[in-house]
Design brief:
single chain; alpha+beta; Calcium-transporting ATPase, cytoplasmic transduction domain A; 9-stranded mixed beta sheet; about 15% strand; elongated
Length: about 900
């Protein structure tokens, strides 16, 4: 039997061994497969071929995690104390607030537990397997190491396997490696160490067969496959709290400690002076309620949800609320190349002909334009492109077949549909499909003059080797060795520029070739065609916008270094001056685990990058204080999407795995949508900062009013239940209206704020203290005037303080305009939600005053006209004072 140690060693070296050696080490049989005893033994030893799923939290544990919060502790304690002292209405209201917050948090976390389900769906497939001498269809879960697979076009590979046979076999590995075109596979052993993307004799779980047939022996199943390794990395990457969540939590904790200290001091002072215990408890509860912005989590969530809604209208699906704001803090975006920066659609870029300058193809609305179409080389290469082509175009313009061949058909059809159709109708008399060993494909036709026309295309090496002549100035001339070397050099130059290159040749003969397997020979070389996956039209301007906004864009791809660098240059990822530096890093140079940020900070393109290296790059940049966004579409991107501060998956071409673990999904796969999301994130943070200033400034006034009256008159100016009612109104509706404002349209004209910058800067704290003191002075003045001058009862004084504070808080929302905005025409006054919120809040307060049942619960009394005049003056004075100061001092 094969041991786990032997199998582990084989997984890392299978591609370097011959197929016969791999079969022998697996103790299998290439013709008959495994016998029943070996199958049973290996099923028991290695288990089913399925990916493990990390067990998610139970519903109970999710609920408990939501309750594990200092704010919840304080409010729960306040509710229990209210129950103990018989104040049932107050206790019930506090509990309602707790329940609402817990339900919101529970639902968000419960929805986040689906990330691994998508990977498991990859296991649901069947495959043809040879066992005990017979071919059988088998569920992929039943496959074991040593099984012999037979694969055909359309099959999904169920395990990692070493090829034993490969007949024109092509595998789409985009989901695993990021390679944009199908990979030609062979059976030859590889002498040198190679990365996954370059192991052409190996097939991998989760990839798909696009053409050809093959036979392979399985050497890795389940979590030991490359996809399994990625799945394990996804599970290992615990999602860290986003910057906004961390900052809001820290702010809340700081507020709690301050108010606990004040409440403890007051309680101790009152207890030492033999004051009424329940009044001491009530005042402490009032301070707790006054200090904690109960509506902050709800308002922040709704404000972010509003941002999510706006982005959904712009093809951006945000799955996690706080991801919107975190996008606004992004300083680095790691982006894939294929389909994000480029169109993921190979296109004919240029022609290289003998004794001619390269012909560039200009595309306008899917229509190609080419100069000098009359020369004989162009006419021949046009003909060969259509004839030596196994792809097909559908009516709606989509194609079936190899992407390079589809690109040739689209070019020829759109350039000259009549000539394209004429050539397409010709019947082949010989056909040799693409062969990964010879790297050529060809066909033969009988011309109208009776001649046989052989058309061939393939890699430059192969076509040049099979060419004896070259077409120059309408003449077929001898093709010298020196000329071939120059054309090979030309091919290398085009490849270094990021182009995929095909060479073309033809031969005219009087008779049909006798050797039908080797008729692609003695060709006349025509020229080269360079293909490119063109950048999206909007990319260059989007990247320029990012640079202006202080965001660095880095390309991370599994593609060829030359291709990646060329795309980066085309979209202006780096400047011409920077190009002289080492802007490209090959994945093999990232194998050193001790690589430092300083070594790569000036690089813009990372090519041939493996999934683990993406994690490494993200970790390096995050450790340097960057807020990292990562785009991706394949299975190979999933761990990095989860590790990044913000994972952005593609909606059109992205795998379900990538979409499930990402925070954001782009429904149109457009980089422009990322820019919109970043702008919205910055607007949201500005709005959140605005309503936090709004909330904390009047919460400060509540604390100060209670402190002044409690320590001077030893009376409670506003009751806990009144405070809770008022804060539920002010903390939610006006604050929410501020949170959903349109914001500053110039947010992308400035660099992102420092990721370490707190929610509130020193300027904001000065605003909070100043606003709070002004409101405190006005409301305290009204209370003291009623107490000493009007000599009204304590309950009336309480009502005057409550209503004065309520209307002052509602009007305070207008003080949150920017200092350089007009007093009467600004983003606050233009916000229709502000007016709706004020109308709602004032209406609810008046209902509570006039409806007896609510008035009794909130301890409201009938107030005289004199009292209402005092309330009106004291509530509008803070607005007038703050607005006048803003006119003088713009940053107030």
């Amino acid at each position: 039997m094969i041991s786990e140690k032997e199998l582990s060693d084989l997984r890392s070296e299978a591609y370097r061994l011959s197929s016969k050696e791999v079969v022998e080490k697996l103790k299998s049989d290439a013709d008959n497969g495994l016998d029943k005893d070996k199958i049973k033994d290996r099923q028991e030893k290695f288990g089913k071929n399925q990916l493990q799923e990390k067990s998610g939290k139970s519903i109970l544990s999710i609920i408990l995690s939501q309750l594990n919060n200092p704010v919840i502790y304080l409010l729960t304690a306040a509710a229990l104390i209210a129950f103990l002292f018989g104040d049932i209405p107050e206790a019930i209201v506090i509990l309602v607030v707790l329940i609402v917050n817990t339900i919101i948090g529970f639902w968000m976390e419960y929805q986040a537990q689906k990330s691994m389900e998508a990977i498991k769906k990859m296991d649901k497939t069947e495959i043809t397997v040879i066992r005990y001498g017979k071919e059988t269809e088998l569920d992929a879960e039943e496959i074991v190491p040593g099984d012999i697979l037979k694969i055909d076009a359309g099959d999904l590979i169920p395990a990692d396997a070493r090829l034993l046979e490969a007949n024109e076999l092509q595998i789409d590995e985009a989901a695993l490696t990021g390679e944009s075109v199908p990979v030609n596979k062979s059976t030859e052993a590889i002498d040198t160490e190679k990365q996954v993307a370059d192991r052409n004799n190996t097939i991998y779980k989760g990839t798909a067969v696009t053409a050809g047939t093959g036979k392979a022996v399985v050497f890795a199943t389940a979590m030991h496959t490359e996809v399994g390794n990625i799945s394990a990395m996804v599970q290992e990457q615990d999602k860290e709290e986003t910057p906004l969540t961390t900052k809001l939590n820290q702010l809340t904790k700081n507020l709690i400690w301050v108010i606990l200290a004040m409440a403890a001091a007051f309680f101790l002072f009152g207890w030492l002076t033999d004051k009424d215990l329940y009044q001491l408890v009530q005042t402490s509860i009032a301070w707790t309620i006054a200090a904690i912005p109960e509506g902050l989590p709800i308002v922040a969530s709704i404000a972010l949800a509003r941002g999510m809604y706006r982005l959904s209208k712009q093809n951006v699906l945000v799955k996690k609320l706080s991801a919107v704001e975190t996008l606004g803090e992004t300083t680095v975006i790691f982006t894939d190349k294929t389909g994000t920066l480029t169109k993921n659609k190979l296109t004919v870029k240029n022609f290289s002909f003998p004794q001619k300058d390269d012909l560039k193809v200009n595309w306008k609305n899917e229509k190609p334009e080419v100069q000098d179409q009359e020369n004989s080389n162009f006419q021949e290469i046009f003909k060969i492109s259509v004839l030596a082509n196994d792809a097909n175009l559908e009516d709606e313009g989509k194609g079936n077949g190899d992407p390079l061949e589809i690109a040739l058909l689209k070019f020829t059809k759109h350039l000259d549909e009549e000539l394209y159709t004429e050539n397409k109708k010709k019947e082949r008399i010989l056909h040799k499909p693409f062969d990964s060993d010879t790297m050529t494909m060809g066909v033969a036709f009988k011309s109208e003059n009776g001649q046989i026309y052989v058309a061939a295309k393939g890699s430059s090496n192969a076509i040049l080797d099979k060419s004896t002549h070259i077409l120059e100035n309408d003449e077929e001339k001898d093709f010298s060795k020196e000329q071939k070397e120059k054309w090979q050099q030309k091919n290398d130059e085009l490849s270094e520029d990021g182009l995929r290159v095909l060479a073309f040749g033809f031969r005219k003969t009087e008779n049909k070739p006798e050797d039908e397997d080797n008729f692609i020979e003695k060709l006349c070389f025509v020229g080269l065609i360079g293909f490119i996956d063109p950048p999206r039209e909007e990319i260059a301007s989007s990247i320029e916008t990012c640079k202006k906004a202080g965001i660095k864009i880095l390309m991370v791809t599994g593609d060829h270094p030359g291709t990646a660098k060329n795309v980066g240059k085309t979209v202006h990822l780096f400047s011409e001056d920077e190009e002289n530096n080492d802007v490209t890093v090959h994945g093999k140079n990232l194998n050193d685990k001790d690589i430092q940020y300083e070594e790569i900070k000036d690089s813009y393109v990372f090519s041939r990058v493996a999934p683990g290296q993406k994690l490494q790059l993200i970790e390096i940049y995050k450790e340097n204080g960057e807020i990292v966004a990562m785009t991706g579409d394949g299975v190979n991107d999933a761990p990095a999407l989860k590790k990044a501060d913000i994972g952005i998956a593609m909606g059109k071409r992205g795998t379900q795995v990538a979409q499930e673990v990402a925070d954001v999904v782009l429904k149109d796969d457009s980089f422009d949508s990322i820019i919109n999301a970043v702008a919205q994130g910055r607007i949201i943070f500005g709005n959140i900062r605005r309503f936090v200033v709004y909330q904390l400034s009047y919460h400060l006034s509540e604390i100060l009013i209670i402190a002044i009256m409690s320590f001077s008159l030893f009376t409670l100016p506003i009751l806990p239940l009144q405070l809770l009612f008022l804060n539920l109104l002010s903390d939610v509706f006006p604050a929410l209206a501020l949170g959903v404002g349109e914001g500053d349209k110039k947010v992308l004209d400035y660099p992102p704020k420092d990721p370490k910058e707190p929610v509130l800067k020193k300027k904001n704290w000065r605003q909070i203290i100043s606003y709070g003191l002004i409101i405190t002075a006005s409301i305290s003045g009204a209370y003291l005037y009623s107490h000493f001058i009007l000599q009204q009862s304590e309950s009336i004084n309480n009502n005057i303080a409550f209503f004065s504070l309520a209307f002052a808080q509602f009007l305070h929302v207008f003080n949150l305009r920017d200092g350089d905005e007009n007093m009467f025409n600004n983003q606050v006054t233009r916000n229709k939600f502000i007016w709706m919120a004020l109308l709602l809040c004032i209406t609810l307060v008046l209902i509570a005053y006039f409806v007896p049942v609510f008035a009794d619960v909130l301890s409201f009394e009938k107030l005289s006209l004199q009292s209402w005049i005092l309330i009106g003056i004291s509530s509008i004075v803070p607005l007038i004072i703050i607005q006048l100061i803003k006119e003088i001092k713009k940053d107030f």
